[in-house]
Specification:
The chain has 255 residues and is of the alpha/beta class. It has helices at residues 15-28, 53-63, 79-91, 107-115, 126-140, 156-166, 181-184, 186-189, 192-199, 208-232, 248-254; strands at 2-6, 33-38, 71-75, 96-101, 118-123, 146-150. The protein has a single domain, classed as P-loop containing nucleotide triphosphate hydrolases (Rossmann fold), CATH 3.40.50.300. The longest helix is centred in the C-terminal third of the chain and has 25 residues, at 208-232. The protein binds adenosine-5'-diphosphate and magnesium ion. The site of magnesium ion (MG) has 3 residues, from α1. This is ParA family protein.
Length: 255
């Protein structure tokens, strides 16, 4: 089993969006995916008035036919739970464990990050990216297995480019996620593939623009999923940018 933890020490960076999107991406590859909620919503009563984001998402995923043992939600509130339940997921044969974390990092979140084979740090704008760069040195030191992610910049390609730059010398996925309904509304629609196919229509129909955007988002998610898989194997699509990077040795090894 490979473990991917999502890290951003700033709320609203798209951690939960990225967790759900990668789950759809890996499920589309036929993998068995466990999603761990290590946010402050973990432990919410699913039958209560306000189920957590991931609990709601699981209901929609079930409606799209993704249920245990293909997809499972694990909720953890303590370090012991994180360690025991990830070991249990491995023993039960899951291919992937995706861990969503919170902006404030306490013991359970730090334990989750410590378990990860790959840490993904998403940002939706240069501001988030700068916070994350500070957070990385505060919480992660000089991590070897970290990839930053430009996630859906609202204001187009220029902002996406600035976000990429704001990550500094940290490696960034070449694949970016767009700002898209198919991603933001996953807790309403569940699986992205399922959502896209439900919108399918011909170019002369009024819903075509919506379908096209959703399809583009789904393609971006799949591209990212593959790149994440390569990153898990130590391969990076990063272009070589010179010696100032602490990751230079890694890039050279790939080239
Ligand atoms: N790629 C995206 N496309 C559209 N909206 C997004 C995207 N990423 C994030 N958002 C928006 O930002 C909000 C915060 O994202 P979320 O994943 O909940 O952040 P976090 O878990 O880091 O707090 C979401 O509710 C969604 O509306
Ligand atoms: Mg969240």
């Amino acid at each position: 089993m490979k473990t991917i933890a999502i890290f951003a020490n700033k709320g609203g960076s798209g951690r939960t969006i990225a967790t759900m999107a990668l789950a759809s991406g890996f499920l589309a590859q036929g993998k068995r995916v466990a999603v761990m909620d290590c946010t402050d919503q973990a432990g919410t009563n699913p039958k209560g008035r306000h189920p957590s984001t991931l609990q709601n998402w699981m209901i929609q995923m079930a409606a799209c036919k993704f249920r245990p043992p293909q997809l499972e939600l694990i909720e953890c509130q303590t370090r012991d739970e994180v360690e025991d339940r990830s070991a249990a997921a491995e023993a039960r044969g899951f291919d992937l464990l995706l861990i969503d974390t919170s902006a404030r990092l306490y013991e359970p979140q730090l334990a989750a990050l410590g378990l990860a084979n790959l840490v993904i740090a998403p940002a939706i704008s240069p501001f988030e990216a700068k916070c994350i760069v500070e957070g990385i040195s505060e919480y992660l030191g000089t991590p070897e297995d970290l990839m930053c992610l430009v996630n859906g910049c609202r204001n187009g390609t220029l902002e996406a480019e600035e976000t990429r730059k704001a990550f500094g010398y940290h490696p960034v996925f070449q694949s970016e996620l767009p700002w898209a309904e198919a991603l933001s509304d996953q807790i309403l629609n569940g699986d992205i593939d399922h959502f896209v196919s439900s919108l399918a229509c011909k170019p002369d129909k009024p819903g075509f623009a919506r379908f096209r955007d959703a399809q583009a988002a789904w393609v971006a998610v799949q591209r990212l999923t593959f790149e994440a898989e390569w990153a898990l194997r130590g391969q990076r699509l990063e272009p070589f940018v010179g010696e100032q990077s602490v990751y230079a040795y890694k890039r050279k090894a790939v080239a």
